[in-house]
């Protein structure tokens, strides 16, 4: 298979021997030539001899692929499909390409006889297996060291596939003409953008295809809160953060960092925009929870390490194109440093936050001490039953 990334580095002979003996093998049969296929942080175009990937370090990996049209049809690349796999030492995973679905079918891996047959012919199959791109292993581990198999399985869709393009269907299934009679007509000119949007059918994810991410509460304050409490909970999001931890990661709060990594990988490698939106929401929640920083020291020490590696992998122009909208990242990190370097925070966390602030200031030339243009008073919507005298 031909690499679409930078050239590989020479692998240490001892490492190569250990991976050859202990590494897992993905046997992927029937994938059309030209298909883009990748594992973790590196991808290739499949060649005519490709039959899979060998010498894969045991652990969590992200396999992804997308169809590519022939050069005569423009060589356009289709939407990316991916899935997280946890591989055991010397494990063989067998999948066959389904041309109708344009997807890999892993059902053969459940056939012990078939897997045993493949294992007995591995020597003959070896020349057709590409070695795992060991040069990206360190990067991959740095992006997923908090993401466990349990958390990945909990978060990825029930369908088992993470798709760059959402599989959506109309919320209202209007199968009969009379059902459509009461719907807005779309054969006349719209008077406004809002009218045009209102005419579009409301869509939802096809059941089983959506990412199963933690729900971040829209109301950041407890029921029955006073106006003063509502204002406080809008400035310090600790109540909302504790709600997310209680509902999703009660036994192990640090798994929230795994979810942050899951969302980031889905976006950075899987091209899933919903992953980016959830990453932004989780990051804002964590960075604007002053009381929680004093309570969850290990969570925030881990957050700095996770962000250090994530921001190191984002292309420089990314901030111009996406993150800089509404000054999101600089304003979010400014709030984080204001709280993390403030009084009442553990000394080790404060020291690490100061070093991280200096690192980001130098790397991206951000000024976290400047007043942001949008530092206007926070406008808080009060519940209908709450009045202010």
Tell me what the structure shows.
With 389 residues, the chain is of the alpha+beta class. It folds into two domains: 2-144, Substrate Binding Domain Of DNAk, Chain A, domain 1; 227-364, Alpha Horseshoe (Serine Threonine Protein Phosphatase 5, Tetratricopeptide repeat). It has helices at residues 13-22, 112-120, 122-125, 137-144, 149-155, 177-180, 193-199, 227-235, 238-248, 255-268, 273-287, 290-295, 297-313, 318-323, 328-340, 347-364; strands spanning 2-3, 24-29, 36-39, 42-45, 52-56, 59-66, 81-87, 92-98, 103-105, 129-131, 162-163, 168-170, 203-205. The strands form three sheets. A six-stranded antiparallel β-sheet has the order 1-4-3-6-7-11. A five-stranded mixed β-sheet has the order 9-8-2-5-10. A two-stranded antiparallel sheet has the order 12-13. Strand 3 and strand 4 (42-45) form a beta hairpin. Helix 10 packs antiparallel against helix 11 (273-287), helix 10 (255-268) packs parallel to helix 13 (297-313) and helix 13 (297-313) packs parallel to helix 16. The protein is globular, with a radius of gyration of 25 Å. The model is unreliable at 2-8 and 374-379 (pLDDT under 50).
Output mean pLDDT.
Answer: 85
**Helix proportion of residues, in percent?**
40-55%
- For the record, the CATH architecture of the largest domain stands as Sandwich
Count of extended strands: 13
Label the structural class: alpha+beta
The CATH C-level class name of the largest domain: Mainly Beta
Pfam families: AAR2, AAR2_1st
GO cellular component, one term: spliceosomal complex
GO biological process, one term: spliceosomal tri-snRNP complex assembly
Function: Component of the U5 snRNP complex that is required for spliceosome assembly and for pre-mRNA splicing.
């Amino acid at each position: 298979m031909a690499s679409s990334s930078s050239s590989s580095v020479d692998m240490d002979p001892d490492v190569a021997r250990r991976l050859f003996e202990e590494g897992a093998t993905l046997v992927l049969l029937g994938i059309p030539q030209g298909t883009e296929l990748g594992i973790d942080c590196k991808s290739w175009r499949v060649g005519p001899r490709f039959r899979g990937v060998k010498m894969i370090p045991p652990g969590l990996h992200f396999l992804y692929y997308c169809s590519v049209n022939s050069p005569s049809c423009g060589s356009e690349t289709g939407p990316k499909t991916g899935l997280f796999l946890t591989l055991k030492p010397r494990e063989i995973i067998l999948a066959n390409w389904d041309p109708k679905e344009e997807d890999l079918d892993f059902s053969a891996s459940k056939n012990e006889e078939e897997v045993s047959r493949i294992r007995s012919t591995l020597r003959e199959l070896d020349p057709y297996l590409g070695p795992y791109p060991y040069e990206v292993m360190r990067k991959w581990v740095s992006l997923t060291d908090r993401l466990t198999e349990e958390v990945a399985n909990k978060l990825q869709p029930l369908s088992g596939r993470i798709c760059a393009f959402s599989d959506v269907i109309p919320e209202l299934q209007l199968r009969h003409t009379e059902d459509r009679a009461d719907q807005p007509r779309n054969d006349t000119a719209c008077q406004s953008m809002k009218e045009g949007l209102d005419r579009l059918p409301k869509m939802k994810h096809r059941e089983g295809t959506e990412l199963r991410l933690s729900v971040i509460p829209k109301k950041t304050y407890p029921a029955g809160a006073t106006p003063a409490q509502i204002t406080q909970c809008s400035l310090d999001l600790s109540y909302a953060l504790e709600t997310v931890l209680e509902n999703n990661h009660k036994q192990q709060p640090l798994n929230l960092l795994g979810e942050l990594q899951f969302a980031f990988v889905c976006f950075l490698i899987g091209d899933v925009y919903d992953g980016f939106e959830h990453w932004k929401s989780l990051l804002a929640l964590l960075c604007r929870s002053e009381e929680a920083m004093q309570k969850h020291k290990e969570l925030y020490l881990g957050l700095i390490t996770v962000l250090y590696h994530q921001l190191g992998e984002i292309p420089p122009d990314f901030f111009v194109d996406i993150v800089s909208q509404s000054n999101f990242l600089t304003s979010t990190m400014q709030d984080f440093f204001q709280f993390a370097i403030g009084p009442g925070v553990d000394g080790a966390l404060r020291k690490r936050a100061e070093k991280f602030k200096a690192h980001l200031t130098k790397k991206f030339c951000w000024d976290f001490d400047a007043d942001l243009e949008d530092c206007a008073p926070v406008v808080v919507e009060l519940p209908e039953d709450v009045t202010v005298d």
